[in-house]
Amino acid sequence: MRFPAPLVTLIRELGRLPGIGPKSAQRLAFHLFNRSEGDVEALARALLDAKRGLDRCPRCAHVKEREAPLCAVCEDARRDPKVLCVVEQPADVLAIERSGEYQGLYHVLHGALSPMHGVGPDELTLALLWPRLTDGVEELVLATSTTVEGEATAMYVARSAQERGLRTSRIAYGLPVGGDLEYADEVTLGRAIAHRRPL
Amino acid sequence: MRFPAPLVTLIRELGRLPGIGPKSAQRLAFHLFNRSEGDVEALARALLDAKRGLDRCPRCAHVKEREAPLCAVCEDARRDPKVLCVVEQPADVLAIERSGEYQGLYHVLHGALSPMHGVGPDELTLALLWPRLTDGVEELVLATSTTVEGEATAMYVARSAQERGLRTSRIAYGLPVGGDLEYADEVTLGRAIAHRRPL
């Protein structure tokens, strides 16, 4: 016995999403089967509206509404145009905004260098970044993630920026606030000690 | 800074799916933002086609194509109508079918009794099950899951079936095939010993 064709198609499409394996896709499909038609239509509509209503900011590659010329950050005249923060994903912009510690502009790479997965410099939005660096920018904050790929990307971008005479900085490593020392992994703890600050 | 409205809506709709928290929903939304419009349309279409093209079998509540009178199992004349296997979800039917060990019919409850979560007998497809038991059925195999809710449901259905003079059975507990004794939890191991079979 096989599943009916529309169910097989749905399971296959759901299974193409990141972090959703065949079992999860099946579970989601059956969950949707038991939801109301209105609920499923709302999800389908949200998918299409998001895809059709959103676009990349032509300046920083962050997400923007399709009709808007720039993203909300680039359009905000109060932001400091002399500092540029380089992140991997649009979600990282939101995370940094929530911290309330940053007033500059952003640049979203949409990934990190990963030769193993076929992601080279051309797959990122670097062609959009280089011209921005001549635009009165003084400091580049490298806020890519602290994974191997994120580190390599930060190094790569920093080197190019330094060649252009810019100051570069990397977000600090250390213990998470509220973190218990005994639960910290030794690499993080080692960095936290090496990068200790005078009180 | 907030996300554009279509993105907020998509994240909210994705977050309503089971097992998808706010962080996963955001990650999925950005993933979809970076996929092609055709890809997103295929997913939206699959959702609508599945919802509109599928229905519950009026006999056993398993999933069926909307135009078909019954599900594939109920329509198969070679199945043994004297044995009925009660499961929680349509996915369980597929799992049992894959084992190749079962030739009877099914009944899909679409859930398990869980007073804590407001799931009583009326929320399951029991109103559809009781009339079937007078229909030449001789044995009821209770294949609900081995969780607290699954056990309670099996007990509840078994008692009603026994009152109607039917034989009832429960799927066996024990070690998974290929399982290492030292990795089995003590409850499972205890059951496996208590239910040991003569060789």
Distance between the termini of chain A: 69 Å
CATH class of the largest domain in chain A: Alpha Beta
Q: Which chain pair has the greatest contact?
A: A-B, 58 and 58 residues
Shape type of chain A: globular
Strand order of the largest sheet of chain A: 4-3-5-6
Task: Let me know the number of strands of chain A.
Answer: 6
The assigned structural class of chain A equals alpha/beta
Largest sheet of chain A: 4 strands, parallel
Specify the CATH architecture of the largest domain in chain A. Answer: 3-Layer(aba) Sandwich
Number of structural units classed as domains of chain A: 2
Strand content of chain A: 5-15%
Give structural notes:
Two copies of one chain form a homodimer. Chain A has 199 residues and is an alpha/beta fold. Chain A folds into two domains: 5-51, Helicase, Ruva Protein, domain 3; 77-199, 3-Layer(aba) Sandwich (Dna Topoisomerase Vi A Subunit, Chain: A, domain 2), CATH 3.40.1360.10. Helices cover 43% and strands 14% of the residues of chain A. Chain A is built from eight helices and six strands, in the order H-H-H-E-E-H-E-H-E-H-E-H-E-H. The first copy, chain A, has helices at residues 5-15, 22-33, 37-53, 72-75, 90-99, 126-132, 148-163, 186-194; strands spanning 54-56, 63-65, 80-87, 104-108, 139-142, 167-170. A four-stranded parallel β-sheet of chain A has the order 4-3-5-6. A two-stranded antiparallel ribbon of chain A has the order 1-2. In chain A, a hairpin with a 6-residue loop joins strand 1 (54-56) and strand 2 (63-65). The model of chain A has no long low-confidence stretch (mean pLDDT 90). At the A-B interface, helix 1, helix 2, helix 3, strand 2 and helix 5 of A face helix 1, helix 2, helix 3, strand 2 and helix 5 of B.
